[in-house]
Specification:
- By secondary structure, the chain is an alpha/beta fold.
- It has 15 helices and 17 strands.
- It has four domains: about 1-15 and about 25-70, no CATH class; about 70-140, Orthogonal Bundle (Arc Repressor Mutant, subunit A); about 140-240 and about 380-405, Rossmann fold (3-Layer(aba) Sandwich); about 245-375 and about 410-435, Response regulator (Rossmann fold, 3-Layer(aba) Sandwich), CATH 3.40.50.
- The radius of gyration is 35 Å and the shape is elongated.
Length: about 450
């Protein structure tokens, strides 16, 4: 009698009240497969000793091994986890659509979703309606990228290239479900944990004796320098992301000459630094300009010893001379924006009286008044390229030193949007003499106040 009651209870017999909220037909359809499989298992375990079982497969419970039940969703979970762990599906890959996986694995969608949900809860999958199901990495096992900025103490923050490269690194890491960390070279540890993919260095103009080079090399991890001068790869021997500064400088110069400018003033860093950046020795500079269609005079070159140095007197003397340039071409967007502020203070109209061209691609250049034309290096893109180089380090780490050139773009904006026409027949002559209206502007302001 007791065995009969146990059998009825195991089979889900007449004493079952069904599931609340379902009709009798739904309850019958819901419980029928379970009853069939329970009967199958009861007969199996009644007449087959467990010691004789290696494993069997059941439509609902999946695998039964030595008396242990594994739900079908668990076997699907294990299969999906195996594909992720073995690299069949890599981080960032999108899984096939659920109907495709259901047909491939031979399961219902509800079973597949249960396994997918479990993997998502554990951090191996990211599921969203627009993006689909994406392979990710749990936080504890996430790869990390370590960024080491240059020591730019005393330099205005807006003029530091790493300010514009780091957002590109961070964005790319987020897309790949990786983390980015920033550290000062002073606090760099002697070794890194295994989950660090590598190091991105943001420094340039090396002489080979810097302490930071010894520190990063001793880490023995993939390393990319993402902000370099042309000579840096030979000095450091590091994989690098470069910009062809010489060609980029020529492209900006060509934009000015195409707008009718022949006499162009240059606001440069000290030439020792500028010629290393542009890869143009000073003795070749006049010929370089002539080839581009521009004239050169020594007085048109303003050298600024430091980024934060005041060059207003030199610029004023050049602009208000009898034969001023018609355009200014700056070493960086920071110098160009400083020129624009001074010109507006002196009452000089941009670009009608003088055009201004930058060279960097700072995001703030477009916000100037007027918006600043520039040669854009694509700093954010440089950061993304550096991360992708680290991802592919198996192809080069310990084998070769890759050098990747990042593209640049000439971005014409309002600061150069005025075509200079010369009807005098003398193409070498500069612009008309610029009147210094700064005093008049100050007098008018005082009267207004």
């Amino acid at each position: 009698m007791k065995n009969r009651e146990k059998t009825k209870k195991f089979f889900g017999g007449p004493q079952r009240a069904g599931i609340r909220g379902r009709s009798a037909k739904q309850n019958q359809r819901f419980s029928a497969p379970h009853s069939t499989d329970r009967l199958f298992l009861l007969i199996l375990f009644r007449y087959c000793p467990l010691s004789c079982l290696d494993f069997i497969h059941c439509p609902i419970y999946g695998t039964v091994k030595k008396g242990n039940f594994m739900l079908k969703r668990d076997t699907i979970y294990q299969e999906l986890a195996r594909r992720i762990g073995s690299g069949v599906w890599k981080p960032g890959d999108k899984l096939p659509a659920e109907p495709v996986l259901c047909r491939e694995l031979g399961v219902a969608r509800v079973t597949l979703r249960a396994a997918l949900d479990q993997l998502a809860d554990e951090g191996f999958l990211s599921r969203s309606r627009p993006a689909g199901t994406i392979v990710t990495i749990p936080d504890a096992a996430k790869k990390k990228v370590l960024v080491i900025p240059a020591d730019s103490s005393g330099q205005p923050e807006i003029s530091r290239p790493e300010l514009y490269i780091i957002p590109g690194i961070e964005r790319r890491c987020m897309e790949l479900n990786m983390e980015m960390e920033i550290i000062n070279s002073v606090f760099l540890p002697p070794e890194l944990p295994e989950n660090y993919l590598g190091v991105i260095l943001l420094a340039c103009d090396f002489n080979g004796r810097e302490k930071i080079l010894g520190k990063v090399r001793s880490l023995n991890v993939p390393l990319v320098n993402a902000h370099t001068f042309p000579h840096d790869p030979q000095v450091t021997g590091l994989p690098s992301v470069l910009t062809d500064f010489r060609s980029a400088f020529l492209a900006g110069l060509t934009h000015l000459t195409q707008m009718g400018h022949r006499k162009i003033g240059f606001v440069m860093n000290k030439w020792k630094t500028a010629e290393k950046r542009f890869d143009i020795p000073m003795r070749e500079f006049p010929g370089f300009l002539k080839k581009a269609g521009a004239a050169f005079e020594d007085r048109f070159l303003i050298q600024v010893p430091r980024v934060d140095a005041d060059f207003s007197e030199e610029l004023r003397a050049l602009l208000f001379s009898d034969d001023p340039p018609t355009a200014l071409y700056a070493y960086s967007d920071y110098f160009a924006m400083t020129c624009c502020n001074l010109l507006k203070e002196w009452g000089v109209r941009i670009p009608e009286q003088i055009a201004v061209m930058g060279f960097s691609g700072y995001t703030s250049a477009a916000l100037q008044s007027p918006p600043l034309s520039t040669v854009d290096f694509g700093y954010a893109r440089i950061g993304r390229i550096a991360v992708d180089m680290l991802r592919q380090h198996e192809q080069w780490f310990g084998k070769t030193v890759p050098l990747v050139y990042s593209p640049y773009d000439v971005i014409p904006r309002h600061s150069t949007d005025f075509f200079r026409m010369d009807f005098s027949g003398n193409a070498k002559r500069g612009g008309r003499k610029i009147q210094d209206t700064s005093c008049k502007t100050q007098d008018a302001r005082e009267k207004f106040e």
